Amino acid sequence: MAKKYSEIHDIVYYQCDTNGTLTLPTLLNIIIKTSSAQSDALNRGSDYVASFGLAWVITQYDIAITRLPSSGETVTVTTQATSYNKFFCYRNFWVHDEAGNECVFIKSTFVLMNIENRKMSSVIEDIIAPYESEKVKRIERGEKIQPVENGRSQDYRVRFLDIDGNKHVNNSKYLDWMTDVLGFDFLTTHTPERVLIKFDKEVEYGEIVDSIWSLKKQDSRPAVSCHQIKVNDTICAEATIFWQTKNE
Amino acid sequence: MAKKYSEIHDIVYYQCDTNGTLTLPTLLNIIIKTSSAQSDALNRGSDYVASFGLAWVITQYDIAITRLPSSGETVTVTTQATSYNKFFCYRNFWVHDEAGNECVFIKSTFVLMNIENRKMSSVIEDIIAPYESEKVKRIERGEKIQPVENGRSQDYRVRFLDIDGNKHVNNSKYLDWMTDVLGFDFLTTHTPERVLIKFDKEVEYGEIVDSIWSLKKQDSRPAVSCHQIKVNDTICAEATIFWQTKNE
Fold first, then answer.
1. Which of A65, A88, A103, A124 sees the fewest Cβ atoms within 10 Å?
2. Which family, according to UniProt (chains A, B) (predicted)?
3. What DSSP string describes A95-126?
4. Whose CA is closest to B108, among B180, B35, B162?
5. Topology (CATH) of A4-135
6. Rounded-to-integer distance, Cα A241 and Cα A224, Å
7. pLDDT over 70 at A248, yes or no
C-alpha cells in the first residue's frame, strides 16, 4: 500500500469565486502543493528530480466533486502515489472537510519529462521508490474526453502572472480559460460535478489561446460542457465538465 | 495606541510569479485577510458592518517594499487601524520575515460605503471604536500619483474569476492589469520598490478595461511606471510604481 500524505488547508476568500466556493484553478494549486510537500518529505523534491535532468509533468486529471469547499472552511488534502508503469505514474488526491466528509476526489497521471528536450522519459526507480507505489503493467486510459461540437471560441492572451518557471503556463490556468467562457449567469447557477481534463502541449508566455467550447444536456444532467484550448489550431488541452444545478 | 493584530502566512509557489517572489495582487489579498481577521476578532466583521447598510472600501495604498518574500518563506502580517477622521480611516500593514526584518510596509485608506447607493458614508463610532484608533482632524493626502505621459494602452476583459461579491472587481486585480503591460523582460529584471495606487471607481464583470501606461527614468531610479485603468474613458484606478533593478 503506497504511503499517504496529508496537509491542512484554510480556504480563504481570495481563493473563492463570487459564489463563495473554492475556484477550480486554486483547487489544483492546493492539491499540487500537497504532492510537492510529500515529495520534499521523502527527499524526492523537484531539485532531486532535476538532478536527473527531469521534471514532473501532469498529463490528466479526473476530478469528482461532491461539493466545493467554502471560504472560511478548513480542509484536509490527502495524496497517495498509488501505482506506476513504464511511463505513467498514477496519484490520487482527496479533499475532506472538518466533519471528515469527502468533498473532492481526484485521479491524476504524472510523467517525467526531460527538461532539455521536453520529451517524456521512462520512470526512474530511484525517484519513485520512496512513495511505495505499486508497479503495474496496465495503462489507465481514463474516461474519454468528449469532442467539442459546433464550438464557439473566445481568445485569451497569456499574461505574465499566468506562467511559472520556464515561461510555461501553469496547468491550473486552463480551467480559468475553459470556465470563463460560460459566463456569469451559467457559473452562478451551476456547479461542477466532474471534470475530465487532459494536457497535450505546453502553452507559453505571450501566446494567444483560443478557448473553444460547446454546451449540451446529457442523460439526467442539466449541462455538459466540452472544451479545447488551442494555440494556432494545435490542441493544448481538452476537457469535459459535467455540471449540476446549484442549490441556493 | 491602536490595537495591532498579526497573522502568520506561508508563501506558497502558486502565490509567486516566475521570479519566485510573491505577486503584488496576492500581497494585497494576504494583508486584507489579516485586517478582516482583526475585524472578526473584534466582532466588527463584514456582517456587522453590513447591519448598518455599509461595507468597507479601500481607496488607496502606499506600498513600500524592501523585498518581496519568496516561495517557501513564512511571514508575519501585522495590521493596525491607526487613525480616522470624519470620512477616512487609516490603516497600516507590515510584512516581516522569519528573522524579523521588515519586507513590506503599507499605508492604506479605507472608507465606509453605503451598499445601496454605493456612496461614501461618514465613519460610525460604533463600528470603529474597538480598534482604538486615534481620532484626528487632518486628511492625509498621500504622495501624488504621477500622470501618464504619452501612454500606451492594452485592453483586458473582466473575467468571472476577477470579481468578488456584487460582480465588482477585487482591488488586487488592478495591479495585475497594470504590471502585465510592462512585459516579461521588464518584469524579470526589475522589482517594485514603491507602489502608490488610488481606486476611483468600481469596475464590473464583463467590462473592457484599458490599462494605460508610460515608463520613465526619475532621479536615481532606473524606472518609474505611471498607470491608469480606464473604462470608456473614465479613470477607475491610477498608480505610480517605482522600480529597482533586480539583483540576480
1. A124
2. Belongs to the acyl-ACP thioesterase family.
3. EE-TTS-EEEEEEEEEEEEETTT--EEPPPHH
4. B35
5. Thiol Ester Dehydrase; Chain A (3.10.129)
6. 6
7. no
Q: Report the candidate in A245, A244, A242, A246 with the shortest Cα–Cα distance to residue A225.
A: A242
- Measured in Å, how far apart are chain A's first and last C-alpha atoms? 41
**Inter-chain CB proximity A161 and B25 less than 8 Å:** yes
As a whole number of angstroms, the distance between CA B157 and CA B151 comes to 19
For A107-125, write each residue's pLDDT tens digit: 999 999 999 998 999 999 9
Alpha-carbon span A172 to A31, nearest angstrom? 11
The pLDDT of residue B248: 59
- Return the pLDDT at A219: 79
State whether B13 and A36 contact (CB < 8 Å): yes
Model confidence band, residue B219 (pLDDT cutoffs 50, 70, 90): confident
Instruction: Report in angstroms the alpha-carbon separations of A95 from A9, A99, A105, A244, B116.
Output: 10, 12, 7, 19, 38
The answer to whether residues B173 and B167 touch, using CB atoms and an 8 Å cutoff, is no
Cell numbers that stand for A80 in this block: 497517495
Give mean pLDDT, residues A5-10. 97
Q: Decide if B160 and A187 are in contact by the 8 Å CB cutoff.
A: yes
Domain A4-135 and domain A152-245, same fold? Reply is yes
The contacts of residue B248 (CB under 8 Å, 6+ apart) are none
Q: Quick one: what percent of chain B has pLDDT higher than 90?
A: 91
Nearest beta carbon to residue B14 from set A13, A29, A165:
A29
